[in-house]
User: Fold these one by one.
Assistant:
Number 1:
Amino acid sequence: KGEHTCIAGLAAQHKTDMGSVERVSKYLLDAHALVAARPRKPEKIKSEVSKLATWLRKHQDESLPDGGKGQLLECIQLYHKTALSKPEIKDAVYTLVDDLLKLPEGKLVLQRQSHTHRSAHRYTRTRVCVRKKNA
C-alpha cells in the first residue's frame, strides 16, 4: 500500500512539472511573438512580463527539468534585450530579473554558479550602468 502512495505522489509531481514546462514554453512563444510584432506594443509586453513575474513567485518551489530552466532563461533574456531599446518596459523587466535572482536555487533555476544566475547578475549590472548613465 505504501508503494502505491509513493508512485501516486511521483505521478502527481510529474504532472505538475509537465504543466510548468508547458507554461514556460507558452511564455517563451508569447515573448517571441510580442517582441517580433511591429510595431511593438509596450503595454502588452509589460503585461506579459508582469504575468511571468507573478508566475515565478507563485511557482518558486516547483521544479523544472533543465530544458524548462533554459526556456525560462531564454524568455527573460529576450525581454531584457528588448528592454534595452524600449525604455517604457525597462522597470517591468528589471523587476522580473530581480524576481529571478530571488528564487530558490535548483528549482526553477539552476544552482547559483550556473549560467542562469550569472546571466541574471549581468542583467542587474546592466541596469545599474544604464541608470547611472541616465542620472
Number 2:
Amino acid sequence: EPLGYSTYFMSSFMSHSCLPNAVWHYQGDDFVLRARRDIEEGDEISVSYLSEDSLLESIDARRKHLESSKYFVCTCDRCNAPTDTSRGFRCPYCPGIIFHTSRRDSKPFSA
C-alpha cells in the first residue's frame, strides 16, 4: 500500500507514448521537463506513463500494464508499428540484428 498520493498539475496534461520525446525529473525541489531527443516544431510533446524498465517490455506487456493501471490501451506509434526496433537482439550467427515483428491481426490486451 502506498505511503501517500501526489497530484502534479502540469504533468497531468502530457500525452503518453512508449517512445516518448520528453521526460519529467526532479532538479532540487523543481519538477523539470527535459527533451529525450530532438523535438521538431509542431510535434506533440509526450512522456511515458511507464517506468524506464517497463519501456523495455513487449507491446503486450506494456499494454497490459497501462490498461490495468491507467485504463487505456496504448496506440502510440511504437505499439502500432509492425516492428519494434527498440527491442532488437544481435544475431549470434551473422552481423545482423533480430527484431520482433508484431502480428497485425493481434488484438490489444483485454482483461
Number 3:
Amino acid sequence: APRTSFNFLALCASNFYTNSIFHRNMRGFMLQGGGMGDSGKGGESIWGGTFDDEFHPDNVHDKRGVLSMANKGPNTNAAQFFVTYERQLHLNNVYTVFGRLLEGWDVLEKMEKLPVKGAPKKSLA
C-alpha cells in the first residue's frame, strides 16, 4: 500500500498527529485515532480530501498489531488509522492494511486495558 504508507508517514513528519487523541478503543477489536480536535474525528490526506483503497492479498488483518486506514466507505482514506488488538479477518478488503506494530507492544497492551466511556458497541465479528 505505497500511497497509504506515504500519506501516513508524511502526516507523521508534518506533526499532523501531534496531540491528537485516540477516540475509539474497543477491547479485543481495535484502537482508532488520527483525527483532529477534541473529538479525534475528521482529517484529510496529504493531498487534501480522500484517496483510494489499496488492497493486497498479503496485507490482511491476521493478528494483533496490524496498522490500517480507517474510512467512511470505499475509497475514502484520509488521516484516521487503527491498530488491531486481535485478528479481524472480516476487515480484509474493507480497510487498507499498510503496516504492523514493531515496537511498543507494552503500550498497546496498556491501551487495551484502559477503561472507556460510553455503552459497549455491538461486535461486527
Number 4:
Amino acid sequence: SPHLGRQLHALQLQIALRAAALLRVGGLLSYSTCSFNPLENEAVVAAILESTGGALELVQAPALEGLDVRPGMRRWLVVDEALGPLESHADAMRRIPKEQRRRYRRTMWPPPAEDGPPLERCVRLLPFPQNTGGFFVALL
C-alpha cells in the first residue's frame, strides 16, 4: 500500500546508510527487498547515492541466466490515499495538512531525469514469468 511504502522508505534508507557506513573502501553493498514499491527500492537507492556524495556508485548487476529480469525504474509516482498522485515534495507540502506532512520525505520522489543516477542498473526480478518470488536488487 502507499502508506506502507512511505513508512518503510525511511527505515530502509536508515538501514542502508548504516550498511554503507560500515562498508570498506572498494567493498560492495547489495541492497535488496522483496517489494516492488519504488519508494522502498529506487527511491532508497537514489537517496543513498545522494547522501554519500559520490562515495558509492551504482554498478550494473551481473546477468542472471535463466531469470526474467527488468531494469530499475527512473520514474514513479508518490501517491496519497486521499489526494492521489503528488507531483513533488513541494506539491505534497502545499496540499497535505500540516500534521501529516512528516510522512513525506523529499527523497521519495524520482531525481531529475537529466542528472539522476542510472537507476536502470538496478534489477527487478518479477515473480510471474518464472514462478518465483519477486525481488529488487541494487549493487553499490
